[in-house]
From TrEMBL:
This is Sigma-54-dependent Fis family transcriptional regulator. Residues 23-111 form the PAS fold domain. One of its GO terms (biological process) is regulation of DNA-templated transcription. CDD domains: PAS (cd00130). SUPFAM superfamilies: PYP-like sensor domain (PAS domain). It comes from Oceanospirillum linum.
Amino acid sequence: SLQIHIQSEQENINRLTCAHNATLECMDDGLLAWDEESRITMVNHQSERLLNIEASQVLDKEVFSVLRFPPNVLNSIESGASINRKLTTVEVRGEFVEAIITLRPLNDGTHLLFLHPIDKIRELAQQQIGGSARYT
């Protein structure tokens, strides 16, 4: 019946939502998203940690009132261009935060800003250097 089908679909949606949320919270990257009106719609725990912000304080705020981007990043945001793993500095409440960022504009006007933790990347690079040094 239709009722059973609706219930099954609801269970699938709940499963997918749980998996989606778990993925966002388990990844090393910070993720901050904003909509076509530049309102922050999502902040994961890593973004809170890397940017020293609280999701509850910045959700639904205008992204440019929370983060100050350098001109080259601002130009990419305004022109709808992507950025792939670029080392940059953003200003958050008067503090400068160095980050490697990836920016993805989506078709609906949403932007996804991934913050790749520099310490983790340096750690991986060090492991690679150490690993290759052992074999030479």
